[in-house]
Amino acid sequence: MLTRQTFLKPCLILHLANEYAGDHRPAFGALLRRMGKVPGAFDYLVWARDGGLFLEFKSSKGKLSPNQQAFGEELSRIGIDWHVVRSCEEAIGVLRERGIVR
């Protein structure tokens, strides 16, 4: 579990709620896109003063969708780090490698 004491440097962690449930009318989907919904955007953005990374959580057999593959390729093209992780422990390991958590 991550607590304030776990972090080695100030950072911002955002969950990008890019999915939506319930209202599936085309007009609503168009509204979400105008508001900034990006098809394939990964689950979490972790940002610290010295840069950031995206995390996409998948099950043990989960695969990136074509939109997620395209999103990852765009991140790589512009030099932003991203990782597909299969558990919270794996995500914490990525954050530990980046010097964000203990």
Concise structural overview:
By secondary structure, the protein is of the alpha+beta class. It is built from 3 helices and 4 strands, in the order βαββαβα. Helix 2 (66-77) links the parallel strand 3 and strand 4 (81-85).
* Strand segment tally: 4
Overall structural domain count = 1
In whole angstroms, how far apart are the ends? 11 Å
SS class: alpha+beta
The largest pleated sheet is described as: 4 strands, mixed
Query: Roughly what percent helix?
Result: 25-40%
Approximately what portion of the residues adopt beta-strand conformation? Answer: 15-25%
The CATH topology annotation reads as Trna Endonuclease, Chain: A, domain 1
- Provide the low-confidence segments as ranges: none
